[in-house]
Amino acid sequence: MRIGRAAEAAGVPTQTIRFYERRGLLPPPRRGPNGYREYEASILTRLAFIRSGQAAGLTLVEVASILDLRRDGAVPCARVHSLLLSKLDDIRARQRELAVLEVELEGLISRSVRLDPADCTDVQICHIIAPED
Fold this sequence. Notes:
With 133 residues, this protein is mainly alpha-helical. It has helices spanning 3-10, 14-22, 42-55, 60-71, 77-114, and strands spanning 30-31, 37-38. It contains 5 helices and 2 strands; from the N terminus they run ααββααα. The chain is elongated.
């Protein structure tokens, strides 16, 4: 199948397929006599895998490492498990940071209701977020 048909079937733009090829995530396609890319149906499975990996928070470099393991004959499940645990740890840390930020923002919003804009000075720029004296 040609790139347009592959892109439509996978739900991605043709530029995405070309980008994945340049990054080594997709094998180089066969070229027809006219120079057009000709893809095997298996490309759709690989595109779906790449998109699923990204949806799980994996970077393209991480997805490529999984594909490399599979290409080399290894079963990448342990690597995927490790990557997903790391992503979960990152998300939990980010959630804690966001919870702290939420409290800080609520405090600033509460403060903004109590402050009079007329009391704001040029030095403070904005007394809502300026440090309290």
